[in-house]
User: What shape does this take?
Amino acid sequence: MSMTMQRLHLTHPLHFVIGLTLWCIWFVAVYGGHAVACSVAPPAPEQGVFTLVNAMLLVVSIAAIALLAALTVSCCRMAKRHEGRLRFNATVSAGLYLFSTLGVVFAAMPIMGIPPCL
Amino acid sequence: MTTINREATPQGDDIKGPNQLHNDLHDIWGNPRGLKALTIVNHTALGLRFMVTGMVFFLIGGLLAMLVRTQLALPDQDFMSPDIYNQVTTMHGTVMMFLFAIPMLEGLAIYMIPKMIGARDLVCPRLTSLGYWCYLFGGIILSFSLVLEMAPDSGWFMYTPLSSSEYSPGLGSDFWLLGITFVEISALSAGVELVVSILRTRTQGMALHKMPLFAWYILAMALMIVVGFPPLILGSVLLELERAAGMPFFEVAGGGDPILWQHLFWLFGHPEVYIIFLPAAGIVSTLIPVFAGRPIVGYGWAVFAIIVTGFISFGLWVHHMFTIGIPQLAQAFFSAASMLVAVPTAIQVFVWLATLWLGKPKMKLPMLWIMGFLIIFVCGGLTGVMLALVPFNWQVHDTHFVVAHMHYVLVGGMFFPLIAGLYYWLPLFSGRMPSETLGKWGFWLTFLGFNGTFLIMHWTGLLGMPRRVYSYETGMGWDIFNLLSSMSSFIMSAGIAMVLLDFALHFRFGKPAKHNPWNADTLEWANSMPPSAYNFVSLPKIETRHPLWDNPDLPRTMAEGQHSLAVATHGRREMWGTDPLTGKVREIIHLPGNSWWPLFAAMALAVVCISLLTRLYPLAGIAVVIAGLFLLRWSWENGAHPKAAPDAEVAPGDPPLHSRTMDGPGLWAMSITLLANGSFFLSYLFGWFYLWTVSPEWRMPETSPLSLVGLILAGVALTAGVVILEKRVRGLRQGKDTGLAIGMYCISALGFVQVAITLWVLLSADLAVTETSHDAIIMVGLAYALLHGGLGAVLTLLQGLRVGYGFVGAHAPFEPAVVAQWWRYNLVTFWILVGALAVLPRVIGS
Assistant: This one.
């Protein structure tokens, strides 16, 4: 774990943008994936939310949440080890990863309540 | 400008007196007068030109707004015909968004950023100049349509099919599409150089976490411009191709889809709101600590909020399209994202309030406008959250409620902070103070008039009055509200007129300002007032976020030349190139002097624009070639060219000139330019897959019309060129330049081979570009590949010539590395195009 954290250089300002870039990729993936699924194989309306489309979107979302949450925790740990510029970078990155995590959670909630393609 | 002195940079005892230094620096950096003023590339002069031009367009846009309110003041008015009304409303939105808001804020950033970060100019001064001329010419062309009564009339977002040739057969839509694309060259060029300048030219020691917050906001804005504008440029190109050449991108019968335009427009349009808001919020974050007399509370929170806003604003575009029949689940995603963006905005509001709470605010004139901003913008934000809720959005869609919300956000979020900022920096611009009396009258009239106009407009909208109607019948219950809105709008106009009058009069009658009159903390106040063309005699090392609070003596010691680069005998325009993260000095950046080429290139591009408008395509083609030649000639005067820096000598201990390294700002400028290019390319791919997936009449042939063998051969030539170029660049890094010119010519030849084969594939495909969107979009993709391949080949050919002239080689190895970036980008996008256009259709069919 610590080797992975070192390799990720979590005090680098590039992490200011990675979390939200992952959020954007997730967002495009679920929006685009939903559109393609509805175009290729729309499920029957009577299935409600228990469809393969909802399941796939949920799996992608859970994977994104897990990844972003792990990066949040890692950045928090890294921030505690440094001072000055590096601490600032890691702390802001941790906040941005946390926001991205919660952003996926919040925007993915409708997947559990709204049927696709209607 | 100057003659080059081959003397090395003197240090220590060689330092001259302040007056002599000023005179020497003025000889190098000073602006010419008369006709030669057109050659100025200095950021201070051009920033002012942007802002003055922006204010002129603001007056035009404001006049149009008054016409609209006059028309709507009473029911059944015939003050304007429906045709003219449509032109006036369309042009009001277009002028305010594209010709006022963005250029004005860019102008402020262009003026302020180098001063705030301790630099002497922006990193690409000729690009600043090109941007200004493109803005001016594009704006004039677009505005001229009003005089001709041919202005666009389909609304400022130009929805298809209303803006297509069937329903808008005149030149109005063409004026919009071509004029706006022309103006966007300006926005993109400013975006690129602001990013590179902020990242690479901050003064020594100014690490990222010590950067002024305003620079963070401008960095985010500039990156958003770079990523956000290309989708609209693509949309404009496609729509103009549809109108001029009949390619059916947005026409259902031809396999297109009008909704594609909405996606492309709002992919730009929603981030655009934040592109306007963020710099204005930067002004607020700069002013509040100064007037509260304490550092901002939560600098890190503010940086966090800026970054989140920049990203999330790209995930909201569909909330403008909730009523077009998108599935509920997809709407829910965008509804959630639209609510999310309120979080970083709220964080900023709390940061500002906490700073005011913990400080001792002084309610000077700029603060009055900041308080007005806080009230109006918070209200606009709250109605924004209401509009993020899908059912409510459906109810008020296309009503005056949306118009009111938009003005609360844009006028509250941009105009009020802008005026606050202008009042704040006015003493820096002119050395004089504004009139408190006129300013206060101006504020209160504007504030009351604004709320009287737009608060009431919320109710008019809730009562069901649709937007974009030129008249209404009496008895709908809208009469009194419209009358009050119109009367208030004239009160607002009177307020704005007072503010402008105050600005104009203060240059003549304002009291002379004392130095740093607001007791500010940032470096721009270390300038003379008004500033010199080179900003600072010497460049300081910065240790804190508040240099002037922590070292009030800094302006004096900087002016006396006690810090770095206080020399001018070499005749170069010099400033530091620093590490983007730590602020450590890496190299000396030498900047080009005044130049005619940006003006000439912009004039040629204006001819292209007008020729396309008037359908004189041969002339447009000639003008494109001429513009290209001007731009290439411009690029010739770089690096070791006699007009740039033929002498690389620096004093012992000084870092090298950037053109003698492999890491100059040009590499960064190319990277950021390619980011914009990549955004354009991704938008194109989105269009291809969108039409393929969604368009109801999409027609894809059983077999792809493109020769896969031909495309692979072209790709092989391109790949070989990249491999050889990379090897040459590696050699230059090691100081080897044997056979460099021949190598460059060979690489160029491979580029031309790629172009020739791709052209053969295109011509042999026999595409029916006016019959199906499938063929039309393939044609656009291959044209993109041809353009990039051709430009890569020409640039490499020029590198070969420059090696021959001695401008490039082991002594000046920089430029091939920049060209290599272009080739790498070309390689990646070409193979993606092959995959998307020729391989995927063969694999999965239609």
Q: What stands out?
A: The helical segments of chain A are 2-8, 15-40, 52-81, 84-108. The CA atoms of residues 54 and 116 of chain A lie 7 Å apart. Chain A touches chain B at residues 12-13, 16-17, 20-21, 23-24, 27, 30-31, 34-36, 38-39, 84-85, 88-89, 91-92, 95-96, 99, 103, 106-107, 109-111, 114-118 (CB under 8 Å). DSSP finds four helices and no strands in chain A.
